[in-house]
Design a protein that fits this description.
347 residues, alpha/beta, Nucleotidyltransferase, domain 5, 11 helices, 18% strand, binds zinc ion
Amino acid sequence: MTTNQPLIPLSQAKAPYFLGVDVGGTNIKIGLVDNGGKTLAFKEIETLEPDGPQAAVARMADTCRGLCAAAGLDFAKIARIGLGTPGSMDIARGLLIEPPNHPHWHHFPIRDALEKATGHKVSFANDANAAAFGEFWIGTGEKHASMVLLTLGTGVGGGIIVDGHLINGVNSFGSECGHVIVDSSPKARLCVWGGGRGHLEAYASASAVSAITIEGLQAGANSSLQAAYKSGEKISARRVYEAAEGGDKFALDIIDSTAVYLAIGITTMVHMVDPGLVVLGGAMDFGGHNSKVGMRFLNKIRSEFKELTFSNVAEGTTIDFATLGGDAGYLGAAGIARDDYLKLGLR
Ligand SMILES: [Zn+2]
């Protein structure tokens, strides 16, 4: 895997320079980024989770040095490094707590370890917040002062930026938009993560879409997916999208209902923050702007939101897809490092 960003040579780049590190369960994306958000060099390395965090930090530091060497930049010229990891975490103390996909990394002081391994200051962020900051800095949110990002993937992540300030919260739980309650009934679906009831993530994540579809098929829904399901094929959100593209009414209904729950969650967030912009990122975009189903999904969210909010708020709020894709995390981590550097200097 590589970045979708065009790589620019050092001669065209603007100082100061930052490194953005985006830690995932399988891979770690690292980019060397200039002051304008342009990428000079990029590498994706394996997480190798079972080898533990110390070994991964050593490989991150090596890759950071390697990217600078590849771009012809002295590693000492790096102004700051940004590091995004999945929660749970303690941002103020620089600690991972118990990230579910990193069982061997629990309670590890990853920020300080990376500072020690690189000799540079490290800004630490939740991965979804980093992705939000990427979209805010140079993506869909570029021209906005505030923004809410929802990432629709295995779970539903989020990031909230108010007047340029990322909301981390007192317990490093700020911006966890996936756990907003969209159904308070006692029969509401259980959250994929942690067992809370009625959370947005239980209705609008890729895992939820897959689970809801399978339940419908088991109940005898009339759908082209029945044959696939009965033959043992995995019914992923992607598979639901493909069926919808083929005109399958059951699949289209599932996507419409996903949009309705998202609109409920979005309304809650907008009524708290009034950001003017809500961005949908993550892998589950049902084809995005370039697909009929993707646009139906987006327009359904927009029309439902319009029903649920005040007319002036509906008019003054844009809801749209993200633009940076899988690059948002490393770019945002670099952007957060830049933001801290501009505020703090080399402290
Ligand atoms: Zn939840």
